[in-house]
């Protein structure tokens, strides 16, 4: 494998190229602009195509067309841009068209602010579009993990013929770290059983999200539901730390998990029995990690998030049930959590702590 020192956004783009992505269409929006910029230089060198679309709507439509034509295709955006892409993402899910979508999230609703945040959690994991479909959502916490998950995301998308989201934030996208880059691959698996490549010597094909027959539509939806169940059984990824004797468990993903991990070391040095669950797939969510906790000992679970109001805490509450107390701690407005703030939030959960 090649080693390089890359900014997160550039590393994501290079990982996509190495995974066989040969078509990219996107529209500029901070804090993900280095992704299309990188593709604009890199794609011609590998025989691929880069298009700066006139809008997010146009870009996601072009990506769907390229995927239907048999190419591994990708787009990227940030929070409000994802809202504009939502109809196209829904259409791809309804037509069983694979793609990879990178969301380098900013903070806040509406236009928000270019500062990093985790305010995209609910949209990415619960409703990336209309129609009740689901997508796999990967949440890297390092640049290396962003590389590895982007590279893998294309395989998952093709396996399931479904969109996949890589959910990062402005810090992951902007920081520079040393990474090992995966090997170069061609532009994906054989799609000749469904791709639209001209009906020469075969019956014509239709790739569409419009299914007029109710029974046929229900059968398609049932087949999708079976895929979602398979994800929950086989594809969940998470990391745990210091859970063997933990009385307090911190749950965090992405950048918040990096910060919480540093706080964990400080708290352990103080003798506080705290552990951590870090979801890597935030969809499907790692409910099994919570079922494995010993609730005779674990009395409090704290969701740590870089957004206000907290969003992942609802999944944490569902995972814990009534077996322990659940609360949240976070910062909004683009403020990045500090290890000291997280450590202080955990100390407040220790019986008798006066802070």
UniProtKB/TrEMBL annotation:
Keywords: Oxidoreductase
Gene Ontology molecular-function annotations: oxidoreductase activity
Domain Pyruvate:ferredoxin oxidoreductase core, first and last residues per copy: 246-342
Annotated Pyruvate flavodoxin/ferredoxin oxidoreductase pyrimidine binding domain residues: 14-185
Gene3D superfamilies membership: 3.40.50.920, 3.40.50.970
SUPFAM superfamilies, sorted: Thiamin diphosphate-binding fold (THDP-binding), TK C-terminal domain-like
InterPro entries per record: 2-oxoacid_oxidoreductase, PFOR_II, Pyrv_Fd/Flavodoxin_OxRdtase_N, THDP-binding, Transketo_C/PFOR_II
Alphabetized PANTHER family for the sequence: SUBUNIT OF PYRUVATE:FLAVODOXIN OXIDOREDUCTASE (PTHR43088:SF1), SUBUNIT OF PYRUVATE:FLAVODOXIN OXIDOREDUCTASE-RELATED (PTHR43088)
Name of the protein this chain belongs to: 3-methyl-2-oxobutanoate dehydrogenase subunit VorB
Species: Siculibacillus lacustris
